[in-house]
Specification:
Elements (H helix, E strand, L loop, with lengths): L4 E6 L3 H12 L1 H8 L3 E7 L15 E3 L2 H6 L5 E4 L7 H10 L4 E3 L2 H18 L3 E2 L10 H8 L5 E7 L2 H13 L3 H10 L8 H4 L2 H15 L9 E2 L7 H9 L2 E11 L4 E11 L11 E8 L3 E8 L3 H17 L31 E10 L5 H11 L4 E7 L7 E7 L2 E2 H12 L9 E6 L4
Helix pairs in contact: 1-12, 2-12, 4-5, 5-10, 7-8, 13-14
Bound molecules: NADPH dihydro-nicotinamide-adenine-dinucleotide phosphate and L-homoserine.
The site of L-homoserine has 11 residues, from helix 7.
Length: about 425
Amino acid sequence: MSDPIRVGLLGLGTVGQGVVRVLQRNAEEIARRAGRPIVISRASARDPNKARDCDLSQVAIEADPMRVVTADDVDLVVELIGGETPAFVLIGEAIRRGKPVVTANKALVAERGNELFELARGAGTMIAYEAAVAGGIPIIKSIREGLAANRVLSVVGIINGTCNYILTQMSLRGIDFGTALTEAQQLGYAEADPTFDVEGVDAAHKLTILASIAFGIPLAFERVACEGIARIQSQDIELAKALGYRIKHLGVAKRGMDGVELRVQPTLIADDQLLAKVDGVLNAIVVHGDAVGRTGYYGRGAGGEATASAVIADLVDAVRSLDTPPQHRVPYLAFQPDAIAPMEVLPLEKIESAYYLRVCVADEPGVLRSITSILAELDISVEAIIQKEPRAAEDAVVAIITSVVQEARFNEACARIEALPSVRSGFSRLRVEHFDS
Ligand code: NDP
Ligand code: HSE
């Protein structure tokens, strides 16, 4: 077998330590797959003296990650720091030196990927990023290679483990949002800044990448409509359940006649649908291709060793293709760089879906009729409705599932309903996604 490939590991956090453990534990099988051993020669962390949950006795630890990138005994760089700074500069330097890069950094790929891939193309260097989307699920490889025959029609999925963990725990154990988030952080699922998770930014980063490799469009993070789960209340979860739905944080990239939909939003899914049953840190993605139909991908979307699985798969790929001429490698964004072309991104107002509406109303006769009359006037049907009877001195709560309607028209209905004198504060609206139509 050839000499070992020497990896420089930037970051020894949740994922970095997972990579060290899995590489060491499965060293022999990984070498048999890659054709040569893969060893970590150097690593960096802000605090090089901090105790880590892995064996670093054979690894030189640096405080300055640039020393790892530039070291002569580093052939390949794995970036597991996260964020834009200093990751962009470090990866840029590795590329300039012709060192292949593996990263799990979705924020960087989604926001600066167009530049990085152009830089890498100029240098003939690889950048692999399987772990950037859906943790351990090999979704990048599946879309980029396995589905290469298809015109991809849609990619829909649960792509943030932290959000799914929080919504699941709120639903199953009845715990509050803050407690569930703390647990997700303790389990190593959340980003360094967890607002990226709960405000939907992390999922929007991942959707940006998925849409690009599915449709052959440039990475366009700023075009993704992004909403998180912070405003989801326990009563919405309960009312949705009573109506036969689960609330999931969903990423949706859909090709339509007039352009593409790119959005991440909390969404109701009928509880007999596959995605409604995906709980905890698990992620699931359904890709609809014109030839293959719908295919599903399911597994752990976050966590040290699950993510290490994807990082190491990229490492093996990189080692195998070291001698492959750049033009014969799988293109960074699935399509040949000069064949990538932008598509119109539809504004939310033009997107059609069914809706869930929760309204808090005074307990008076005729209130329900005035709400349903507004919906009827705007040609919006009520598919299901429940009313939670008020306890003494409380307002009543009404929850409605509507027919499919364009968002602009639904906005008008909401404005008119909110203006009714008997409607109190406590108004909530969420999309409902039906997959079989
Ligand atoms: P952590 O915060 O656990 O680890 C980050 C590591 O980078 C730490 O070792 C830290 O050093 C080091 N570091 C942080 N800032 C700097 C800096 N400015 N300069 C040098 N080193 C720095 O992150 P994760 O392991 O969770 O995530 C790493 C990457 O993987 C991110 O891009 C993340 O989005 C992505 N990812 C994470 C997943 C997960 O489940 N956690 C899943 C999929 C992707 P020190 O330890 O000394 O503080
Ligand atoms: N914070 C991310 C999540 C990590 O919860 O999904 C995996 O990308």
